[in-house]
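A.,

Following up on our hallway conversation. Structure tokens first:
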């Protein structure tokens, strides 16, 4: 059912890996590529322990623009039964992010078979307001952003189901983000997304991510991450709430 859409997510993943390889050939101060491998646990629609892997490429000269391509894959089996099968890809572009106000555009793709979500694709544009910067403005800052996005979902329904197989909505996307880096090299981050539908405020998606990381070597860090998702109108057959816990090793190249 998801074949035409999974190719989109696959291409996003491949693009992230290809661009990561290209980033290694660029000037050191222009691009940063990052690979990660970690253990992930979850509770909600399922309870399991699996491995996850991801890659990202980020443009570092933020006086001009900020560009990032990323991909994340989680997959697991237990007794020949698939217990985790989700992928995520994103592309985003910020113009002059070092300014207090900066416009941005983005495209995201998500697939999660455990949540009965064959595909969620959304994209939009908005503006970010960075209202606090610390002594190190690149590492210590807080921002609020608002955007409009077109959100399309394709559900993985059981054969013969009478439920609607797709959903398309115009949504607001509101985000709060806070980053803080300690002199020791440890970092903490909090991100909250709220995405209500334009005409039905009760139809909203809430995502919260908290993470803490510490540097082990100059280019190797260990991170703990917790993700919480609440979908007020979940896909047919799925629960509204999901939580994911991860312990991740990240290598910056």
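Then the amino acids I'd put at each of the 253 positions:
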């Amino acid at each position: 059912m998801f074949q035409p859409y999974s190719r989109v997510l696959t291409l996003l993943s491949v693009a992230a890996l290809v661009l990561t390889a290209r980033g290694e050939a660029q000037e050191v101060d222009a691009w940063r590529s990052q690979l990660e491998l970690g253990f992930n646990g979850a509770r909600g629609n399922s309870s399991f322990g699996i491995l996850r892997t991801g890659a990202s490429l980020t443009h570092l000269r933020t006086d001009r623009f900020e560009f990032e391509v990323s991909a994340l894959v989680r997959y697991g089996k237990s007794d020949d039964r698939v217990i985790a099968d989700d992928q995520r890809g994103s592309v985003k572009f910020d113009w002059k992010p070092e300014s207090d106000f900066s416009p941005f555009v983005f495209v995201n793709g998500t697939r999660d078979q455990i949540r009965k979500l064959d595909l969620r694709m959304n994209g939009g544009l908005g503006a970010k307001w960075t209202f606090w910067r610390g002594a190190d403005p690149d590492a210590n800052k807080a921002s609020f952003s608002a955007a409009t996005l077109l959100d399309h979902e394709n559900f993985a329904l059981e054969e013969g189901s009478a439920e609607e197989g797709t959903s398309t909505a115009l949504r607001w996307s509101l985000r709060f983000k806070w980053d803080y880096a300690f002199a020791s090299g440890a970092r903490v981050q909090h991100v909250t997304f709220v995405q209500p539908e334009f005409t039905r405020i009760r139809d909203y998606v809430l995502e919260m991510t908290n993470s803490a990381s510490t540097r082990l070597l100059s280019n190797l860090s260990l991170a703990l991450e917790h993700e919480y998702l609440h979908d007020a109108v979940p896909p047919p057959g799925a629960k509204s709430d999901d939580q994911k816990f991860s312990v991740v090793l990240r290598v910056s190249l």
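The longest helix spans residues 3-25. Curious whether your intuition agrees with the design.

B.
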